[in-house]
Amino acid sequence: MEGNAFASIDEYIAQFSQEIQEILQSVRKVIKDSAPEATEKISYQMPTFALHGNLVHFAGYKNHIGFYPAPSGIEAFKKELSVYKGAKGSVQFPLDKPMPYDLISRIVKYRAAENTEKASAKSKKKK
């Protein structure tokens, strides 16, 4: 492991100020509640939830929370996400505005359904 590798999401979150820790814990809870069967891990040095492959990643920064639901998750909600800075597979939620927990929840549910569908299509092909 590299020098700043994190063993767990708790360890990752602990490096931030109390205020950011609370937001990260809330984002984590929303993801957990939206995809209860997903597992937690650290991937690409950030908190990740996996369900039939990577589901979503999130990360804390000085001025925003980064949320990474893959390009399909961004595309499906592009109208609602258009008010935020983002890229093909990521969006930045500024810390000086309320976190859009409802939107995060809906994106996670969308991604969970997408990954589950892909996994069941793959298992059908194998039979």
UniProtKB/TrEMBL annotation:
Q: Which residues form the YdhG-like domain?
A: 21-110
Matches recorded under Pfam families = DUF1801 (PF08818)
Q: Which InterPro entries match?
A: YdhG-like
Which top-rank group of organisms is this from? Answer: Bacteria
Q: Which protein is depicted?
A: YdhG-like domain-containing protein
